[in-house]
Amino acid sequence: MKKTLEFKAHDGEIEDIALGPDNKVVTAGRDFQCCVWQQDQLVTGLCWNENLPGIPDKAYRYQACRDSGTFLGLGTVTGSVAIYIAFSLQRLYYVKEAHGIVVTDVAFVPESRRGRELLAGNEAALLSVAVDSRCKLHLLPGRRSLPVWLLLLLCAGLIVAAILLLQLAFPGFL
Fold this sequence. Notes:
This protein is of the alpha+beta class. It has three helices and eleven strands. The chain has helices at 48-51, 113-119, 148-169, and strands at residues 14-19, 24-29, 33-38, 41-47, 60-65, 71-76, 81-85, 91-95, 103-108, 124-130, 135-140. 19% of the residues lie in helices and 38% in strands.
């Protein structure tokens, strides 16, 4: 095996790393940053204390990337838990003070057969544990989307309706 790339991704420890689509890499570090990389080039980044002003410096405790690199989980010293889309860093889920005290670890439910049973139709599941000796399961509901055939049918219906309205407003239009 031969090293092909090396670069400094964070100031301090890297807590988690995940590989994603298009050869992108997501890293989460102790320097309060989550970064998306293409080779050694920074694509986008999120600094917790800049992008989330309600979370003071050194407030986050643990981070985790989902195996597929799709999501990033965050636990804070105030007990809050959040899930972000890893490649756009858009927040999808947030529970303020879910534990009420320091979150000591977060981990995504694995994308295995048994893990899918736990998901029960949800898109992701994040486990959080805290100093309060509790383990909580946070479920990210599946995002709904319309089937393409239904979308095309609705568009065709709108076109027909527009033509009929034009025909009524302007007799002899067609």
